[in-house]
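ok so i was messing around last nite and threw this chain in just to see what happens. nothing serious, just curious
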Amino acid sequence: MFIKENQNTEWKESWRDEYLKWICGFANAQGGRIFIGIDDGGRIIGVSDSDKLMEDIPNKVRDILGIIVDVNLLQKDGRDYIEICVNPSSYPVNFKGEYHYRSGSTKQLLRGAVLTEFLLSKTGYKWDAVPVDGVTVEDLDKESFDIFRREALRSGRMVEEDLSMNNEQLLDSLGLIESGKLKRAAVLLFHRNPEKWVTGAYIKIGFFGEGSDLRYQDEIHGSLFIQAERVIELIYLKYMKAIISYDNVTRIETYPLPKAAVREAVYNAIIHSNYAALIPIQIRIHEDAVYISNDCVFPVGWTVETLMERHRSVPYNPNIANGFFCAGFVETWGRGIEKICEACKSHGVPMPEYTLHVEDIMVKFIPLKKSKVSNGPNGTLDGTLEENILSAIRENPNTTQSQIASKAGCSERKVKRMMKGMIEKGIIERVGGRKMGKWIEK
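result:
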């Protein structure tokens, strides 16, 4: 038999209307041919009602699928068989509301995030470029715009003249307005509560003990710019305990992981996350490992090896990526993982380990092993808690001991005892009264 069954060819012994699903699948993929009157062994057995099928098949395809196919009557050894030629469609084709897709030698029914990605690819829209109804520029968040303008100016990606325009003009210059409507990217980047439109658009952080023992956790909500602004600070204030040592009288603080690497990994997760999956970015912190994971739709043909090599930038959410680029948070050359590896090497920790699952990607960092705190000039200090206290004071001199305890994940009594000792050692000072005073690092 000269005809071989492959990803573009299907054999059927006789016609059934359910084979319209196969035609739908070919149209949504690369096109193909279906032969009616050939058995599974590739032998032509023919059809007895070829005249009727030659009329029925094209009409049913047109009426049910909305496309036109070529239906040809062929003959061999006195037997009639039918060839249905399906061209790839430039728009999504559905069979009674179902979207089928030919992959390899199988027909797949598209659902969930895969269906969303397929529909967007066929219509020419990326997920984050779809216009959103019911939200205006006036609904967006002032703090998020302030963060963007500050960081864009500081990084030099935009100049004061560009940033002096009003918010609507700024969004338009960033390509975040389509036909007078805000794109999803604009809502995610600048709305105070993007979860009203995109459930799961936030970050979860948890500190774990042995196994699945969750000790404490936080959720970071708000616009993506607010999340980016706060997540790294929270990780290094509350979750990442610095190793304290001294060189004579010089205090040396070494974090288990380089901040540059963790920041780049988190920003990558924010930019490339498949928000249509409605699952938040998750950061699991253990004593011996840190995991950052997000749902994703990987570029076709890419593997973990592709990530670890030099590669071009292919952001899943290009509008979000452009916003982060203009703010100076990331580059656009696909160097994110390269920068992460460089930071890890410089810090003396192992290279990150990437694991690609069916619908998500996870990066694992192995931190420096914590050492005992060295003896300082004023005796042995609890470096972990002391660093948390100092970081909290630097962030907000008016912070309370209760707030410090909450962020540090320990009791207020322990914080009071530690701060009393730090005052006696001349590390910090309380200025002003109990209600109106503030803390000062000396």
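not much to say yet. The two ends are 88 Å apart (CA to CA).
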